[in-house]
C-alpha cells in the first residue's frame, strides 16, 4: 500500500513538472495545448478522418501513428491540377456499391459531407473554387491504373459520384503512405438504410490511452467571449450553474456540475449565405474558444439547420465525451448564434496501465442489438471510438477506452448501454 502511494505521488510530480517528457518518444496523434492554435489550418480541422485502402482482395482501414495519412495525402494533392468535377451517376445504389468497393482504390472519408468549392478552398485549387456546391464525403483515387487519370468524389446520402480529371499527379507518394501504415484493420463497406457503414470484419484490438486534461476559469471565457468588456456583466448562480449576462445581447451559462458551457450571442444575427462562409465562421469560433484545436475535427455539418459539431480524435478514432454534442457545437440563426462546449481539453499523454481492448466484429455488434429488439434499420450510425472516463483518484487525468458507439433515435450511446452486454470479445 505504501509503495502504491509513493508511486502515485512520484507519477503525479512528473505529470505536473515535466509533461513534455511524456510526449517525446510516444507516437500518439495528440499534441500539447502549448501548440499555437493559429498554426492549425482550416484544412486540418476540416479533413478526412478515415483512410480505407482496397488491395487486390480486401478493404482495410489504415492509419499511421507516426504520420497522419489523411493530412499527408491532402498535402500531396495540393500540387495536383484538378478539373471541375462532372456528375457520373446519382441515386444508383448498385453502381455506388461498385464504386466504393473498387480494387486498388484509396479512399479518404470525411465524417460529414462538404461542398466541392469548399474542397477547392481547402486545397487552394482554383478550378474547384467556383460557385458549385456539389456535396460529397468520399475521395477515391486509383493507385494502380495509370490510364485512370481521375479522382472520384462520392456522396453516401444520394449515391452521387463525380469524376474530376487530374494533371501533375503521381500515385507513388500515396502508395508509400499506404505501405507505412502501422494500423491495418480489415473492413467492409455496407450500404444500410441510414448510410454507408464501416463493418470491421474480424475482432479488432486497440490500445487505451491516458491524458492530462485542462480547463479554464469562467473569467477566461467571459474575457474572450465578451470582447474583453466585462465591466457590465451581471452574474448569478443556482445549484452550481453560473450565468453571466451582458445586457440583453450576450449570455454565458456555465454548469460546474457537468462542466458544460453555453454561449449565446444575440448580436450575431448574420446567417452564413454559403457553405464556405458557414465553415469559415465555425472555424473562427472554435479558435476563439479553445487554446488547442490540433486534435479537433469537423464531425457533422448540417447546412440546412446551420449547425456544426466538432469532436476530438485520437489515433484516427473519435472521442465521445459525456455530452451529445461532441466537443463543440455551433449553431447560427437570425436570432443569434449559440455555442455549446465542454471545459475539458486533452493536453498531453501520460503512461497508461490500461491493457489493450479487443472489440467484437461489427456483425456481432448488430446481432447483440437485434437480441434486445433493435433491427438494423433502427441503427442510424455505428462508430468505433474512445470513451472518456475520468480517473477516480486523479481528476486531472482521463482514460480513453475503445468501444463501439451506436446512434439510435438521434442519441449516441456506448454499445453496452443499449444492450447491457460488453462490446469486448470474450
UniProtKB/TrEMBL annotation:
Protein name (record): Regulatory protein YycH domain-containing protein
InterPro entries, per database record: YycH
Superkingdom of origin: Bacteria
Organism of provenance: Companilactobacillus crustorum
Domain Regulatory protein YycH: 2-423
Lineage per the UniProt record: Bacteria, Bacillati, Bacillota, Bacilli, Lactobacillales
Amino acid at each position: 500500500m505504501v509503495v502504491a502511494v509513493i508511486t502515485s505521488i512520484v507519477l503525479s510530480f512528473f505529470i505536473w513538472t515535466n509533461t513534455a517528457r511524456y510526449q517525446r518518444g510516444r507516437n500518439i496523434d495528440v499534441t500539447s495545448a502549448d501548440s499555437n492554435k493559429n498554426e492549425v489550418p482550416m484544412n486540418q480541422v476540416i479533413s478526412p478522418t478515415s483512410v480505407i485502402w482496397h488491395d487486390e482482395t480486401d478493404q482495410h482501414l489504415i492509419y499511421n501513428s507516426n504520420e497522419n495519412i489523411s493530412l499527408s495525402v491532402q498535402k500531396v494533392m495540393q500540387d495536383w491540377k484538378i478539373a471541375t468535377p462532372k456528375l457520373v451517376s446519382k441515386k444508383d445504389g448498385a453502381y455506388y456499391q461498385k464504386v466504393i468497393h473498387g480494387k486498388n482504390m484509396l479512399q479518404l472519408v470525411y465524417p460529414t459531407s462538404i461542398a466541392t468549392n469548399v474542397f477547392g478552398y481547402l486545397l487552394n485549387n482554383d478550378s474547384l473554387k467556383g460557385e458549385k456546391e456539389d456535396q460529397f464525403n468520399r475521395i477515391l483515387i486509383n493507385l494502380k491504373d495509370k490510364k485512370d487519370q481521375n479522382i472520384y468524389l462520392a456522396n453516401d446520402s444520394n449515391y452521387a459520384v463525380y469524376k474530376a480529371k487530374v494533371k501533375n499527379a503521381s500515385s507513388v507518394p500515396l502508395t508509400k503512405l499506404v505501405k507505412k501504415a502501422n494500423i491495418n484493420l480489415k473492413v467492409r463497406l455496407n450500404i444500410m438504410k441510414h448510410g454507408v457503414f464501416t463493418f470491421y470484419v474480424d475482432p479488432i484490438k486497440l490500445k487505451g490511452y491516458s491524458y492530462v486534461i485542462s480547463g479554464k476559469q469562467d473569467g477566461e471565457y467571459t474575457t474572450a467571449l465578451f470582447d474583453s468588456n466585462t465591466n457590465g456583466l451581471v452574474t448569478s448562480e443556482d445549484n452550481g450553474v453560473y450565468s453571466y449576462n451582458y445586457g440583453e445581447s450576450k449570455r454565458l451559462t456555465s454548469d460546474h456540475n457537468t462542466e458544460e458551457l453555453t454561449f449565446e450571442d444575440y448580436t450575431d444575427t448574420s446567417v452564413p449565405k454559403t457553405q464556405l462562409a458557414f465553415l469559415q465562421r465555425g472555424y473562427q469560433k472554435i479558435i476563439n474558444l479553445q487554446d488547442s484545436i490540433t486534435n479537433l475535427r469537423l464531425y457533422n455539418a448540417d447546412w440546412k439547420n446551420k449547425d456544426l459539431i466538432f469532436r476530438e480524435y485520437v489515433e484516427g478514432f473519435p472521442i465521445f465525451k459525456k455530452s451529445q454534442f461532441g466537443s463543440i457545437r455551433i449553431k447560427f440563426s437570425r436570432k443569434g448564434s449559440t455555442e455549446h462546449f465542454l471545459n475539458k481539453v486533452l493536453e498531453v499523454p501520460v503512461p497508461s496501465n490500461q491493457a489493450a481492448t479487443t472489440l467484437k466484429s461489427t456483425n456481432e455488434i448488430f446481432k447483440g442489438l437485434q437480441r434486445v429488439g433493435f433491427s438494423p434499420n433502427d441503427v442510424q450510425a455505428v462508430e468505433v471510438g474512445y470513451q472518456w472516463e475520468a480517473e477516480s483518484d486523479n481528476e486531472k487525468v482521463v482514460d480513453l477506452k475503445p468501444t463501439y458507439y451506436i446512434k439510435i433515435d438521434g442519441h449516441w450511446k456506448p454499445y453496452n448501454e443499449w444492450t447491457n452486454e460488453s462490446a469486448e470479445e470474450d
